[in-house]
């Protein structure tokens, strides 16, 4: 994949305006695609996103007590690495 193909928030907004010119059906499909993509990324079991918090809750249910705060802090700091 080339660097030129990578898009950030500005690139996504630009693509939204380009797709909006094709009609409302295309725009709704594009917005649904972005929404599903963000949901999948957000639910990854990394401590910094909601999937990580969900994982800590599951561990708490299994153990019967919460994960120590020190472990949560270390996982949050080391998670994205």
Structure characterization notes:
By secondary structure, this protein is mostly helical. The chain contains 4 helices and no strands. The chain has helices at 9-20, 24-42, 50-63, 69-78. The radius of gyration is 18 Å and the shape is elongated. The model has no long low-confidence stretch (mean pLDDT 85).
Condensed summary:
The protein has 81 residues and is mainly α. It contains four helices and no strands.
Question: Which features would summarize this protein structure in a list?
Answer:
81 residues, mainly alpha, 4 helices, 0% strand, elongated
- Spell out the helices and strands N to C: HHHH
The assigned structural class equals mainly alpha
Q: Give the strand tally.
A: 0
Distance between the termini: 22 Å
| Beta-strand residue fraction | under 5%
User: Which runs of at least 5 residues are low in confidence (pLDDT < 50)?
Assistant: none
The radius of gyration is 18 Å
What's the structural blueprint in terms of helices and strands?
Elements: H1 9-20, H2 24-42, H3 50-63, H4 69-78
